[in-house]
Amino acid sequence: MMERGPPRTVLRQRPPPARRANEPLGKESRMKWYDVSESACHIARALSVVGDRWTLLIMREIGIGSARRFEEIQAQTGMSSQLLAARLKRMEKHRVIERRAYQSNPDRYEYHATLEGKQLDAVLLALRGWGMRREGGSATEPSIALADKRSGIPIDANWPFPDGQPFTFEQVDVTLSEAFAIERANRQTDFQSKRQGPKVRRKK
Predict the structure, then answer these.
(1) What is the distance between the alpha carbons of residues 186 and 192, in angstroms, rounded to a whole number?
(2) Which has the least CB within 10 A, 91, 105, 147, 156?
(3) 8 Å CB contact between 117 and 141
(4) CA-derived radius of gyration, the chain
């Protein structure tokens, strides 16, 4: 007769405990940023393209026409060159902006909004109005004053969108407030001084 060994012990895995209503999801369950573009939600998919502050700041500069070249955008947003280059490349990939050459040998480019990119002007206008209302409404001087080109009517925090006509910055005259103009000039000066680096004093 064959001798039988000791009986084997079968270990059964316990099911994971049920998650409480207010308990945060584990790392494996959290939606990652690159997964947002695969969501069924149109808002989530749109945010996968423009859902960070840098992208909208870039579109602000391009939209108001104050900065369209790489160094100009970098000076006014404070982005590193690597981060700005990556954002511009992604925005080109998604057809939000396009490059237009303004110099050859070496090649240099300006960045302009595409037709799809200009549709974000209404988003920026809504953010501007929300920020103005949040900080005092009509009593707050706008850092970027806008006026309709045809009527000359100022566009304040409560300006209604025209019926059946999408808003773009091409429809308005843009005037920067004195405080914002000074802020931008200081940014440009600081950017240029950092590029030039500290001055080396010569020994006498």
Answers:
(1) 10
(2) 105
(3) no
(4) 26
Closest C-alpha among 178, 136, 172 to residue 157 = 136
Give the count of alpha carbons within 13 A of 124, CB side only: 23
Polymer length of the chain: 204
- Cβ distance 174 to 65 under 8 Å? yes
Q: Which residue segments constitute the domains of the chain, with CATH numbers given?
A: 36-195 (1.10.10.10)
> What is the DSSP code string of the chain?
-PPP-PPPPPPPPPPPPPPPTTPPPPGGGSPPGGGGGGSS-HHHHHHHHH-SHHHHHHHHHHHHTS--BHHHHHHHH---HHHHHHHHHHHHHTTSEEEEEEETTTTEEEEEE-HHHHTTHHHHHHHHHHHHHHTTGGGSPPSEEEEETTT--B--TTPPPPTT----GGGEEEEE-HHHHHHHHHHHHHHHHHHH-PPPPPP-
Cβ neighbour number for residue 129 with a 10 Å cutoff? 17
pTM given for the model: 0.74
* Rounded CA separation 147/169 (Å): 10
Question: Tens digit of pLDDT for each residue in 37-96?
Answer: 778 888 888 888 888 889 999 999 999 988 899 999 999 999 999 999 999 999 999 999
